[in-house]
Amino acid sequence: MAANRSDLADITYFLAIARHRSFRLAGLEVGVSASALSHALKGLEGRLGVRLLNRTNRSVTLTAAGEELRDAISQPFTAIDRALEDLNRYRDAPTGRIRLNVVADAVPLLFGSVLPLFAERFPDIEVDIVATNRMVDVVGSGFDAGIRYGGTVPEDMIAQRLSANLRWVVAASPAYLERYGVPGAPQDLQQHRCIGVRLGNGRIYHWEFDGAEGEFALPVHSKITVDDTQALLTLGLQGMGLIYGLEPAFAPYVARGQLNLVLEEWATQGPGYHIYYSSRHQVPTALRLLIELIREVRPLGL
């Protein structure tokens, strides 16, 4: 059976579904609705005369025929994608689409000043950013790259630094400090109202400090816990309690007098943002250009 033009398009959709085991996630990768993908796959299965996927309300799995087809065609389609990407070298204006999985705080801090310039320089490149603190498999989820703190980058990935090390600080509104006082040492936090932080893995974060005997972490009692810096800032600005986070995220509010830093002599530094991607794939031209621009602008130093 010779493949026709429709088969080639639908096979591309099939490979995306096979990677994600999800019509919704595959649709995000290829820019097609989940319902359109489902319709296309039913058509492909009808033309081939075999079932490629088992679908339930909760899962999508490959049949034996689907696994065989995926294994046979994945490498050739990857080679086609690579060959098409190589043509960017001959274009006056690079094109392409970048899908990035980014820790939430990095979006405003890294991209706020970079993306407007990137869009101006490379108007034909699309950038799709998923901002989340939850760690995901960037390759298996169809992303070109991820951006995380240096110490959390998977070891089997190629990583490039995008910022200097980052300082972690404690802050509060002037109204809170006037009412409850200023902590003199991290141990004083047990007598203060603190806003807790939930990490992407669900764990409650222990606030980290750097003292005379080195770095240490303290659990803080929190009646309110959030997993987003914007929510943290909102509560801190309202005088709800002490907040802990990245100094660059707090800096605009400190400059306007809306927040005051405390325990500064105990502040610690952690690894800066790194971008990482699979060593098994060629770096797309669009991604390379974005990395180069971030390292040129240096929004958080380097």
Uncertain runs: none
What's the mean pLDDT score?
89
Number of strands: 15
Give the overall shape: elongated
Strand content: 15-25%
Q: Write out the strand line-up for the largest beta sheet, numbering strands in chain order.
A: 4-3-5-15-6
- First-last Cα distance: 56 Å
Helix content, binned percent: 25-40%
Radius of gyration: 24 Å
Order of helices and strands: HHHEEHEHHEEEEHEEEEHEHEEEH
> What does the largest sheet look like?
5 strands, mixed
Number of helices: 10
Structural class: alpha+beta
SSE map:
Blueprint: H1 5-20, H2 23-30, H3 34-48, E1 53-55, E2 60-62, H4 64-86, E3 96-102, H5 106-111, H6 115-121, E4 125-131, E5 145-149, E6 157-161, E7 166-172, H7 174-180, E8 195-197, E9 207-211, E10 214-218, E11 224-226, H8 229-237, E12 243-246, H9 247-255, E13 260-262, E14 268-270, E15 273-278, H10 285-297
Parallel strand pairs: 3-4, 3-5, 8-11
Antiparallel strand pairs: 1-2, 5-15, 6-15, 7-12, 7-13, 7-14, 9-10
What do you see in this structure?
- The chain is 37% helix and 23% strand.
- It has helices at residues 5-20, 23-30, 34-48, 64-86, 106-111, 115-121, 174-180, 229-237, 247-255, 285-297, and strands at 53-55, 60-62, 96-102, 125-131, 145-149, 157-161, 166-172, 195-197, 207-211, 214-218, 224-226, 243-246, 260-262, 268-270, 273-278.
- The strands form 5 sheets. It has a 5-stranded mixed β-sheet with strand order 4-3-5-15-6, covered by helices on one side. Strands 7, 12, 13 and 14 form a 4-stranded antiparallel β-sheet that branches.
- Helix 1 packs across helix 2, helix 1 (5-20) crosses helix 3 and helix 1 (5-20) crosses helix 4.
- It starts with a helix and ends in a 5-residue tail after the last helix.
